[in-house]
Structure prediction request, 82 residues.
Amino acid sequence: MNVNGGPEAEDVYEIGPLTYRQGCVSVWKENNGCREDALMHDRAIVGVYTGTPEQRGDQLFRAWVNAEELPAVLNHWANVLR
Prediction:
């Protein structure tokens, strides 16, 4: 996972956020035509924060995640932020 050399903010769209009691998770995908299968096949940036989506607190995690790793990463943070 690598966050260096990522796309500019206008080149991505946000999926979520997923909100939990102790924080929230946002997933950003690159705007490569917004294909229907992009979520399951393209890498994404995952950001995890304390607070709410409207008032984000500290950033706990931010990384590029390959499509095959995405379910495990989201499951991990869902368990942490419950």
